[in-house]
Design a protein that fits this description.
It is found in: Cell inner membrane. Helices cover 69% and strands 6% of the residues. The chain is mainly alpha-helical. The chain is globular, with a radius of gyration of 25 Å.
């Protein structure tokens, strides 16, 4: 029976709101830049059809932007309601990029979105173009600061634990900002958003071509989307490789779980293209491997091994044992005004997070036996089949996008968008970027479990001390509210797509 305790319910609620919110984020990123490109063409050529296209896609952008704001605000409130101890423990660090996102990026974006819609007759062409580019810039800045905060949870740099306050405290904002995980994750995520925006424009343009409506705008939109989408899809794959390398450096267990790799893979490590992970035997049946690829992705070399699940569990067990003396010292001395970590415990204080994994098994963790320590170490293995298949479907879709946009680019160069099979293919591909994006977040966040801060705080430690019934009630409310929003969003998008572009005014 699945135990719906406060930890599970809190995780489920945040997962629901995050995945739902991310239905809107990638389209905002992609459409904002496409709007800027189309309006730039309008300003350079003076042709009214480009202004008409910009205004039409801007209407759909506005609907999506409003839904993104409505669903994004509730996510941040959950840190205070459902994850109170996490917020207390790392609030000084985690709150800084979120505050900058609100003050610098969100307000910038929201302000210029208003000018975009109401400034067509009040601003000159160049002034309005600057506004549109600032909307795109604000959207990307917003994603930057959110991903900086999220990446710190995956690779907690620039912070130190203070035994006097029993909290993590900021030591270097520069390290947090230039966290290698944040850099690779930002460029990979925004590129995925650009693919989503390009697919959205191309699919709706294909719909108009199939219906024989608004052909001038449809052809131009398809042309822009084809070239922009091809460049973005290629970027996603290239930058995804960089994300794989940073994960190989900082999240070895995630890489091992994605590969369903129970034993260390000797160099040159092979990538498992296909197979069926078997948890009972801890093997991968019917696997098809590609030589060298995993070594190049995870280690950037052909002479380094990639660690497997079993040795990583043994390493986690060693860290649990090493962290127990430091935990016992903190239990007695932590929180005092003059608490200072003894020299003999300085090396083990970083392993206290591992020892806290035992809290899920017994409260008096200092009395844990060997079997319980091993069970706590085994809990560091995320759900292997979920990660294995999510990653492979995501990657397969990534290569499909490259092929589709390359075909669209070729047809665009030949000025031949009349092939109905291609138009149907483009139209039916509309939901695929969202599927790939959601799978990407599942790989990133589900693969981080059991940590809310990797190696520092187990997820179950960070929850609020509230009844599970309270979280269940708010979860039910979110499901109802977000379902209603989904219906409204789809209805509005469909309505304005059916209406189509209006002549520029």
């Amino acid at each position: 029976m699945f135990d719906l305790d406060v930890v599970t319910l809190s995780r489920l609620q945040f997962a629901l709101t995050a995945l739902y919110h991310f239905l809107f984020v990638p389209l905002t990123l992609g459409l904002s830049l496409l709007l800027a490109i189309m309006e730039s063409v309008y300003v350079m050529t003076g042709r009214a059809v480009w202004r008409e296209a910009t205004q039409f896609w801007g209407t759909l952008f506005g609907i999506n932007f409003a839904m993104g704001v409505a669903t994004g605000v509730t996510m941040e409130f959950q840190f205070g309601t459902n994850w109170a101890y996490y917020s207390h423990f790392v609030g000084d660090i985690f709150g800084a990029p979120l505050a900058i996102e609100g003050l610098m990026a969100f307000f910038l974006e929201a302000t210029f979105v208003g000018l975009f819609f109401f400034g067509w007759k009040r601003l000159s062409k160049v002034q309005h173009l600057v506004v549109t580019w600032l909307v795109a810039l604000g959207s990307n800045f917003s994603a930057l600061w959110i991903l900086v905060a999220n990446s710190w949870m995956l690779n907690p740099v620039g912070a130190e634990f203070n035994p006097q306050t029993m909290r993590m405290e900021l030591s270097s904002f520069q390290e947090i900002l230039f966290n290698p995980v944040a850099q690779s994750k930002f460029v990979h995520t925004v590129s995925a958003g650009y693919v989503t925006g390009a697919m959205f424009v191309m699919s709706i343009g294909a719909y108009y071509m199939l219906r024989g409506r608004h052909l001038d705008i449809a052809r131009r939109s398809l042309t822009v989307a084809a070239s922009f989408g091809l460049a973005s899809a290629l970027s996603v794959v290239v930058l995804g490789d960089e994300s794989g390398y940073t994960a190989g450096e900082n999240q070895k267990m995630k890489i091992a779980a994605i590969e369903a790799m129970w034993e260390t893979e000797p160099p040159p490590a092979s990538f498992t293209l296909f197979g069926f992970p078997d948890l009972k035997t801890e093997t991968t049946r019917y696997e098809i491997q590609i030589p060298y690829v995993l070594g190049l992705i995870a280690t950037r070399s052909l002479d380094k091994p990639v660690e497997g699940i079993r040795p990583l569990v043994a390493h986690a067990e060693a860290r649990i044992r090493k962290g127990l003396p430091a935990y016992q010292w903190l239990a007695k001395e932590g929180g005092r005004a003059h608490a200072s970590i003894p020299a003999e415990l300085e090396s083990s204080i970083k392993d206290v997070g591992y020892s806290l994994l035992l809290k899920r098994i017994r409260p008096d963790i200092e009395n844990a036996d060997d079997a319980q320590i091993h069970a706590a170490a085994a809990s560091t293995v995320p759900d292997v089949p979920v990660l294995f298949w999510s990653f492979r479907v995501m990657v397969a879709l990534g290569f499909y996008f490259i092929a589709l946009f390359a075909l669209a680019f070729y047809l665009s160069s030949r000025r031949n968008f009349r092939k109905r099979w291609f138009l149907w293919l483009a139209f039916l591909s509309l939901p695929l970027p969202w599927i790939a994006a959601e799978l990407g977040w599942i790989v990133a966040e589900y693969g981080r479990q059991p940590w809310i801060i990797d190696g520092v705080m187990p997820t179950f430690v960070g929850v609020s001390n509230i009844p599970a019934s309270n979280v269940a009630a708010s979860l039910a409310a979110f499901v109802l509210f977000y379902s209603a929003l989904a219906i409204v969003d789809v209805a509005l998008i469909v309505k304005y797509v059916r209406i189509g572009p209006h002549p520029a005014n």
